[in-house]
Amino acid sequence: MDWKLHAHACKEQFLADLIQLLSIPSVEDPTTAKPGQPFGRSIDQALKFMLQRAQTDGFVTRDLEGFVGIVEYGQGDTPVGVLAHLDVVPAGDGWMTPPFSPVLQDGKIFARGAIDDKGPALAAYYALKLLRDSKLPLRQPIHLILGTDEESGWLCMKQFKKTEQIPQTGFSPDAKFPVVNAEKGQIHATLTLPTDNKPNNLSIVPEQPVATLTNSVSLSPSNSEITPQSITTFPQTDGKPTGTFRETEPWCLCSFHSGERSNMVPNLATAEVLFPSKFASQPLFEDISTLYQRYLEEHGIHGEVEVLSSMLGNPNAHGLRFTLHGKAAHAMEPFAGINAGLHLGRFLRVLPFRGRGAEFLHVVAEVLFDDPYGEKLGMACHDEISGPLTVNAGIFDYSQTGTAAIQLNVRFPASLSADTCTQALKTTARSIGWNINDLRTSPGHWVPDNHPTVRTLQRVYEEQIGQPATLLSSGGATYARSLPYGVAFGAVFPGKPMTAHQANEFVEVQDLLDAISIYAQALYELTR
């Protein structure tokens, strides 16, 4: 059968459906949640769109109380599973076009969810439809399982497992081609500064590190003054700073916020700083503004600073508001983005803060900044199956009188246990005087290279693409790990950018059509 010919024949209808699906802003919204739509109105709208499309096409469908939708084809007791998700991360800033108004340009479709995961989910559905229309005989049924909470807490899969038979094998179209048979484990943790925290020596050398580091790390006390001379990234005029901001009078960090989801590199950060009125001079603002702009230029990023008068209702107090624009990326590749929170914290360390503000900025700038592999957290490690551990600081939340917290998303090697890595994190947190709250873990997932599912998908890919199907690992967590022998299978082809969780997310239409062809043959072969 000419799978490609049949897949490309459905291009017009596929694009029409894709544009409708991508136009639904299916971001989790607790304010509109209710029984039957547990994650909000828009996610439920996306789920109903898919199920109604399948019903119109003659498929048997089931809606598990808004948590999961199932499209069924074939008869039998041991289904092959295809697991995709319809929820998306928040759009964020930096879009050239409206994120939920899909735009076709140069063979690409731009929208939030284009590649993660609505485009591939719809491609998997069209593959199922193509297979049904071909009338080729199947020995096992196929279940297309559509989740609605993949970007948050996976409550949809937990609900699914309570009532449904779990397929033993299958794939998730939510990663890269050829085949991803190893996925790292995850740790979600919130570092919290206690309200009664007192400065300590902040040594963060772990008592029992996960892996041997090339250099031990010992940080300066949090209440030490950081001056422009001590930060090599701050060029000076005539070799010395001007103005009065190096005075010993303490300043106050009123607020610091960055990030919406821990599984995204935050692309926007804001902070408000309070200083005594005796420093409210134009030279002061000009000095800080100049240093800030030089820092931004050196790192190729953008930001603004503005003067705020009479902050917090105190006519004798003045302040500054800082804004910094970074670059969003998926948390599995923190090095692919520019973390706005980390950069703003790094810059603000130049100002003479004391107390909780200094403690907070110290951890941001000296523990987390420029350390995507967790060396300064004492967590650095790797394995041959899935590579190195990575750390993403995804949400920063600080207020003068309330919260001081940083949410971390850690992806650890598939062959290691979560306990090993969390113990290292706990040791480090204890040594710097912070607590760990909201700790959640999930183990890694690995399907052996010689498993029949892996071999079958490799063969199908090689037959259709004509290139070796090299096995891959990923820091991402897909629904494939919900199956004992599930793997991630597309839809990003080798050499193509992965734009998930980024501004201007896109996918090439040709790639989705090719994915339909690959998925259709793969499903046929898996049921044989």
Compact overview of the structure:
28% of the residues lie in helices and 25% in strands. The protein has 528 residues and is an alpha+beta fold.
What can you tell me about this protein's structure?
- The protein has eleven helices and 26 strands.
- It has helices spanning about 5-10, 10-20, 40-55, 120-135, 155-165, 280-300, 340-350, 355-370, 420-430, 450-465, 510-525; strands spanning about 60-65, 70-75, 80-85, 105, 110, 140-145, 170, 175, 180-185, 185-190, 250-260, 265, 270-275, 300-310, 315-325, 330, 380-385, 385-390, 390-400, 405-410, 435-440, 445, 470-475, 485-490, 490, 505-510.
Distance between the termini: 15 Å
Biggest sheet: strands side by side, in what order?
14-15-13-11-19-20-10-21
**Envelope shape:** elongated
Average pLDDT works out at 88
Provide keyphrases for this structure.
26 strands, six-stranded mixed sheet, 528 residues, alpha+beta, eight-stranded antiparallel sheet
What topology emerges from the helices and strands here?
Layout (H helix, E strand, L loop, with lengths): L2 H7 L1 H12 L18 H16 L3 E5 L3 E6 L6 E6 L17 E3 L2 E3 L7 H17 L7 E6 L7 H9 L5 E4 L2 E2 L2 E5 L1 E8 L59 E7 L5 E2 L2 E9 L5 H18 L2 E8 L7 E9 L3 E2 L9 H9 L6 H14 L13 E2 L3 E2 L1 E10 L4 E9 L5 H14 L3 E8 L2 E2 L5 H14 L5 E4 L10 E4 L2 E2 L13 E3 H18 L2
Parallel strand pairs: 3-6, 3-7, 7-24, 8-25, 9-23
Antiparallel strand pairs: 1-2, 2-6, 4-5, 5-26, 9-22, 10-20, 10-21, 11-13, 11-19, 12-16, 13-15, 14-15, 17-18, 19-20
Helix pairs in contact: 1-11, 2-4, 4-11, 7-8, 10-11
